Amino acid sequence: MKIEKPKVQNYPEYSLSMAVKENSFQYHTYLDTPKENLKIGDVTFDSCLFKGIDFSNISLNDVDLIDVVFEDCDLSNQVFDNHLLRRVRFKNCRLLGVSFLGSLIRDVEIIECKANYINLATAKINKLVTIDSDFSEMTLLDTMIKNWEVDNVNFSSSEIMTTPLKGIDFSTSKITNIRIDHKSLAGMIIDRMQADELVKMLGVTFKS
Q1: Half-sphere exposure of 37 (CA within 13 A, CB side)
Q2: Is the dihedral of CA 53, 55, 59, 63 positive or negative?
Q3: What are the tens digits of pLDDT across the range 94-131?
Q4: Tens digit of each residue's pLDDT (9 = 90 or more) over 26-75
Q5: Which is the most buried residue in 79, 119, 132, 191, by most CB within 10 A?
Q6: What is the largest CA-CA distance in the chain?
């Protein structure tokens, strides 16, 4: 699947604390984790690179992401509900409990990330790549997905309801104990072992 990559370069290093004071979140590289608590709201991160930042002391509210790369960052429990993510890459990040409820997600990569409990309910997704990541206990509810590349992702114990997954290949991933309805299941691409597990989940018993 062809995906548009974030349009980022080697931008000058900049302090997040200073960015908040100046309300400037464009064409910067951020490397510092602020010691003080920061509130960032009603802004667009545009053409930014974040490396090694722990967002535990940073509250993000009403933030859009366009042409943004996060590498080795901890964004656990951040909320991006009902906002735009366009040409964004998360690489080797902690995304535990991150919420994208109702968000518009386009050309986004999530690679080598811990994204347990991620919430993508009611999101509208077009061109999402997820590779070598942990999405266990994920929530997909009434989610619209078009063009989703999945490779070696752990979806164990996830809840997937009223989210059509026709044509999406889960054969290299783990789907143990997922809760899924018939509408979502129809047309999924899985391997034989996964098929046996899903059939048992539906209450069917094989006769030897």
Answers
A1: 1
A2: positive
A3: 999 999 999 999 999 999 999 999 999 999 999 999 99
A4: 999 999 888 899 999 999 999 999 999 999 999 999 999 999 999 999 99
A5: 119
A6: 70
The full set of domain ranges for the chain reads 13-162
CATH of 13-162, one of 2.160.20.80, 3.40.366.10, 3.30.360.10, 1.10.10.10: 2.160.20.80
- Rounded to whole angstroms, the Cα distance separating 14 from 46 reads 14
Q: Burial letters for 111-143: b for 16+ Cβ neighbours within 10 Å, e otherwise?
A: bebbbbbbbbbbbebebbbbbebbbbbbbbbeb
Distance CA 17, CA 193 (A): 51
Copy the structure tokens of residue 22: 């100046």
* Of the candidates 155, 157, 124, the residue with the CA atom closest to the CA atom of residue 142: 124
How many CB atoms are located within 10 Å of the residue 199 CB?
12
Q: Which two tokens stand for residue 166?
A: 């026709």
